[in-house]
Amino acid sequence: MITELGRGQYLLLTTFRKDGTPVSTPVWVVTGENDDAIYAWSAVDTGKVKRIRRNGDVEVGPCDVRGNPKGPSIKARAVLLEQDASDEIRSRIMRKYGVIGWLTVFGSKLRRGRTGSVGIRITPA
User: Fold this and answer.
1) Which of 14, 67, 79, 106 is a Cys-bridge partner for 59, taking CB atoms 3.0 to 4.6 Å apart?
2) Which residues form the Pyridoxamine 5'-phosphate oxidase N-terminal domain (predicted)?
């Protein structure tokens, strides 16, 4: 099921605050090459990255661009990637999302530098 989510346009990534309150965010998503994982990308200073750093237990499901769920969510585990692996995820995002993906990733690099964003590996729980 998780690789099917990686083929979709948007993924609803739900992270959890310290008190257990869920916070859902729509993100771009790509599939892995030879593993049972999907990958997302985010700026390092976002709340979702801080929450994943603290607790990698997440829920993921399909959604639209506004974050409206389009199906059921599943429990998963998220891990932040090192910079070299994050570079690969940024490249996959640019390939999948075309010009808009390229502009977004390029703009992020201009604003934040190479280390200002991070790849997120998501596997089934």
Assistant:
1) 14
2) 10-118
